[in-house]
Amino acid sequence: MIKTPIVERFADGQAIVTEGIVSTRAYIILSGQVRISKKVGEKNAVIGTLSEGDVFGEMGLLSKSHRTASVIAVGDVNVGIIDKKYFDELLERTPAELKLIVNALVDRLKVTTDKLAKVAVHFEKVKRTMDAFSVKTAEEEEKR
Asked: What pLDDT does 5 receive?
């Protein structure tokens, strides 16, 4: 049985997924781009962007956990939705060994996403320090 996906449209800047909410859907980008960000302390770290053909939200379907990142539309975006009920029907036909492997991958991806967000925040701090140093060096050169 092939299910026709539900399609939803999002405008520029609109949240498609909000970090911390309970997951019930996965999304396939049919057109447009999205920005993925994760909260680290008081900062939002941009993890990356996804575009047509990319999938997001799949980790929540597998692990039944809260969203680990926010997804925001960049321009107009159309997404196909895979709901939990349909996904569970597909998963029932999957061998137990494969389910174990997929769940291990999901857990590792969560850890990697958290580490990547921390690196992004640290990188921004280093970039600001380097930018300030460059301005100071340029001012000193002008004085000479």
From this structure: 65
